[in-house]
Amino acid sequence: MQRYLTHIVLCEGIMHHNAILELGDAGECLISVYDGEIASTEFVSGIIIVCSSAVLEGHISNIAFVAESVNEIGPRAEKIHNYLYDAGLYSKESMTSVLAVESAGKSVKIRELHRL
Question: Are 48 and 100 in contact (CB under 8 A)?
Fold first, then answer.
């Protein structure tokens, strides 16, 4: 099992603020509100996206472009959410990728955390 604490998790079209994302070995995904520290939890300073594997096939640069257009995390998450929704990347049947969008100065860094 992998566990992440982050500012915002975007999953199935919903924004979860101050959330913990737990990824099970069998591909299950559990999101809960942060209410205290839990051992073996990795902190991701930014946004975690649970979305279609199609993101890895051409959308990463677009997500980075959208994310870099604003500096604050709330509006950044809203813009990414709108992009994912419009591109159809929240499809439940293909929720196979977990990505982290982290701030690196004025730019953002996107990395794959897990493939379900």
Answer: yes
